[in-house]
Each structure stands twice: as structure tokens, then as C-alpha cells.
Specification:
This is Cytochrome C and Quinol oxidase polypeptide I. InterPro entries: Cyt_c_oxase-like_su1_sf. It comes from Halomicrobium zhouii. About 75% of the residues lie in helices and about 0% in strands. With about 425 residues, the chain is mainly alpha-helical. The longest helix has about 30 residues.
Length: about 425
């Protein structure tokens, strides 16, 4: 069997339909987001809509599903409320769909209402996971990162409705804080706080679990330092941008960049020493390691020069490298989680009684290879669009959209081919 941990108790998590529902909704947001990228919305509303579809929709909804399923499993505690786990998905889906529609259509008056609905869903998620983590007697490194990430989720979803209100009512500047500062803090807490804190915490667990290796002494020392330094760096970067304080943002940005370079090196070393066969998940994790090191090195230079203007690192390349880090972590993890959940539900009881497929047999490896090439090629064309000409950028967006569609279809077919009726009922258009 492909990297199935022996001590995982899937019964600790919610019913399989709950995380799978999050993952399928996340894939729907991914497809909507890449379609808007291919359509090249050039105005501010189009950019805001695309960012929220991809970051809040695909990435954050997927994170919600993954944490709801695996925090109880990793921490050996029961999920506080399965009902709240269902409600969080409904509220976030409705709110983010409305928010993206408001931005894309220019109807900004709807944004505060939709943003508040989405925030209620995220607050439900934070409460549910927070109460779940209260049952843990002593936090390990992953649980500490997740607890901090929940605080960032709470902060960023509190700032979001304020930004939406400012678009329509013009609430800011207030007490020296203007719209640009609030937006900078919001983006920082979303990407480097909520998303990447979760990603880093999960990678410490997944990089060892799925390579069947253990961290070395140097890596453990770095891990202890990063666990303290990274949240401080995120807080300083966000506060510096909120208050337009250059040196505070610069110091925080350097800590964030160096921390993510270190995480990339740890991940690369675990992959170098892996004891399992290479698969689509590990292939994408290898790209994550490279992108993390490249992003951190370029971001450190850019933020030293101007930490307030460059939101996501070095101009032009920073956002794309960062998208590679986040996107390939999510994609690689989904290539294991979705088949694994289906395998546990449909085949685990048959093990030893009749032939059963391996986890990696549930999806099509050829499609995974093709979509990876399309995503990389499309991303490269999109990144070089300014230098090569606008046509190349547009072509890159289309190629990227095709790759994302193949990725979503490959995972959805796992549900169609191997899931029972209750699982298949999650798919759009099902009765």
C-alpha cells in the first residue's frame, strides 16, 4: 500500500462525506478561478474576484476540509461538532460565491453582505476546530501551527468585511489606518498567516509520514526556532503594513522569507531520503521545496528594498512562485487525501479477504502527469507574458486552465468510479 500510516484512526474524523464535500467545492472554486484568469479581467474588481475564488475558495475551503478531517485523527481527539462542520461549508460557499460575483460584476454593494456570510462560516470553522484542539493535552509542532493558523483565520476574516464596507461606505482612514494599509494587513494575514501557517504545520507531519523518514537534529532545531519566529514575523509584517511602518514590516518580512526558505530545505531533504515509491504527491512536494527556496530568496531582497509595496514578494515572479508553493502543496496533498478517504471507506474492510487496489491505483497517473506539465507550462507562459508579449500570457492562462480542469476531473473520477451513492451524491448535478 502506498504510504498508508499504520496508526491512523479514520473513525476519529467526521463522516467521509464532510471533508470530501469541502474538497469538491474547493475544486469547483478552482475551476471558476482559472476560468476568470483565462478571461483576463483587467479591472480591480476582476482581480479581487479571481483572488478570492482561488485563495479563499479553492485553498481555504480545501484547508477547512483537511483540518476538519485530520486534526481529530492526528490529535487523537473527537471532532467537537459534525453539524458545525457541515454548516461552515454551506456558509463559506454561499458567502464566497456572492463575494466573487460582487467583485466580478462590479456590484460592490453586495460585497459587505456576502463577506459577512463568508466570515460567519470561517468563524464557525475556527470555533469548531478550536474546541476540538482544547481536548489535546500537549500540543506537538503541527498542532501549535494549527492553533496559530486558527487565530490568523479569525483575524483575516474580521478585516475582510471591514474592507468590503470601506469599498461602499468609505470608512477609512481612521486613527492613521487607511484602505491601503488595511488591505496590506488583510492580504498578509490571509496568505502568510492563515494559509502558509497551516501549510507549514501540515508539511512537518506529511513530509515525514509520506516519506517514512524522521527529522534530523539540525532540522529539529530549525523547527523549534521557526515555530516561534514565523508567527512573530507574520505579525510584524502585517502590523507594519497596517501602520505603514517600513522597518517593522521589513524585519517581519525577512523573518517570514528566511523561515519559508528553511521549510523548503527541510522538505527537500525529506524527499531526498524518502523510502517510498515516487508518486504525484511527492512530485508536487518536490516543486514546493524548490518554489519555497526561490520565493524566499527573491522575497527577502524585494522586502528589504520596499516591504510595503511588494505584497507577495519580488514583483512579477513573487506572486507566481508563492502560488506554486501553495498550489502544489494543496494539489499534491489532495492526490493522496481524496483517494485515501475513498479507499478507507470502500476497501479497507476487504483487505486480506479479497484483492483490493492500492491508493495510487484509484486515480489515473497518466492524467496526473499531463496536467502537471500543462500547469507548469501554462504558469511559465503566464509569468513570461510581459516579456514575450500579451498573446503568450493569454495562451499560458488557457493552458493553465486546461491543466487545472484535468486535475479536478482526475480527482472527481475517483469519487465517481470508487465511491458509493452517498459519496457520488456530492458531485454537482447528482440527485
Amino acid at each position: 500500500m502506498s504510504a498508508i500510516p499504520a496508526d491512523v484512526d479514520a473513525d476519529r474524523g467526521p463522516p467521509t462525506v464532510v471533508p470530501l464535500g469541502h474538497f469538491l467545492v474547493g475544486l469547483a472554486f478552482l475551476l471558476a478561478g482559472v476560468v476568470t484568469v483565462a478571461a483576463e479581467p483587467g479591472d480591480r474588481g476582476g482581480t479581487l474576484g479571481t483572488v478570492h475564488l482561488l485563495l479563499a475558495g479553492w485553498v481555504c475551503v480545501t484547508i477547512m476540509g483537511a483540518m476538519t478531517q485530520f486534526v481529530p485523527v492526528w490529535s487523537n481527539v473527537g471532532l467537537y461538532s459534525r453539524r458545525l462542520a457541515v454548516w461552515q461549508l454551506g456558509l463559506v460557499t454561499l458567502g464566497l460565491a456572492g463575494l466573487a460575483s460582487a467583485f466580478l460584476t462590479g456590484r460592490y454593494g453586495l460585497a459587505p453582505i456576502a463577506g459577512l456570510v463568508a466570515a460567519l462560516g470561517f468563524w464557525t470553522f475556527v470555533y469548531n476546530l478550536g474546541r476540538t484542539l482544547r481536548g489535546v493535552e500537549e500540543f506537538d509542532v503541527t498542532e501549535r501551527h494549527f492553533a496559530v493558523a486558527l487565530a490568523w483565520f479569525l483575524a483575516v476574516t474580521t478585516l475582510g468585511p471591514l474592507l468590503a464596507l470601506d469599498l461602499t461606505l468609505g470608512l477609512f482612514p481612521v486613527a492613521g489606518v487607511d484602505h491601503a494599509g488595511l488591505l496590506g494587513a488583510h492580504a498578509t494575514l490571509a496568505v502568510f498567516g492563515a494559509v502558509l501557517t497551516t501549510v507549514v504545520g501540515a508539511l512537518y507531519q506529511l513530509a515525514t509520514m509520506f516519506t517514512q523518514t524522521e527529522l534530523g537534529p539540525v532540522e529539529r532545531r530549525f523547527q523549534r526556532a521557526e515555530t516561534v519566529a514565523y508567527p512573530v514575523g507574520v505579525a510584524a509584517l502585517a502590523l507594519g503594513r497596517l501602520l505603514a511602518h517600513g522597518w517593522l514590516a521589513r524585519a517581519g518580512g525577512l523573518v517570514v522569507a528566511v523561515s519559508l526558505v528553511g521549510v523548503g530545505l527541510v522538505l527537500a531533504n525529506r524527499l531526498r531520503l524518502t523510502r517510498v515509491d515516487w508518486n504525484p504527491m511527492l512530485t508536487r512536494y518536490s516543486l514546493v521545496a524548490g518554489f519555497a527556496v526561490a520565493w524566499g530568496a527573491t522575497a527577502a531582497v524585494a522586502w528589504w528594498i520596499d516591504p510595503l509595496a511588494s505584497l507577495y514578494g519580488a514583483p512579477n515572479v513573487g506572486p507566481l512562485l508563492l502560488a506554486g508553493v501553495v498550489g502544489f502543496v494543496v494539489a499534491g496533498t489532495l492526490y493522496h487525501i481524496v483517494p485515501f478517504l475513498i479507499w478507507v471507506r470502500e476497501y479497507s474492510d476487504l483487505l486480506g479477504f479479497e484483492p483490493v487496489p492500492m491508493v495510487d491505483d484509484l486515480y489515473d497517473g497518466r492524467v496526473a502527469a499531463v496536467e502537471l506539465l500543462l500547469v507548469l507550462g501554462g504558469g511559465a507562459l503566464l509569468a513570461g507574458g510581459d516579456a514575450l508579449g500579451g498573446g503568450f500570457g493569454r495562451a499560458g492562462a488557457v493552458v493553465l486552465a486546461v491543466g487545472a480542469a484535468l486535475f479536478a476531473a482526475n480527482l472527481a473520477l475517483v469519487v465517481v468510479r470508487h465511491g458509493d451513492d452517498s459519496i457520488r451524491g456530492l458531485l454537482p448535478g447528482s440527485a
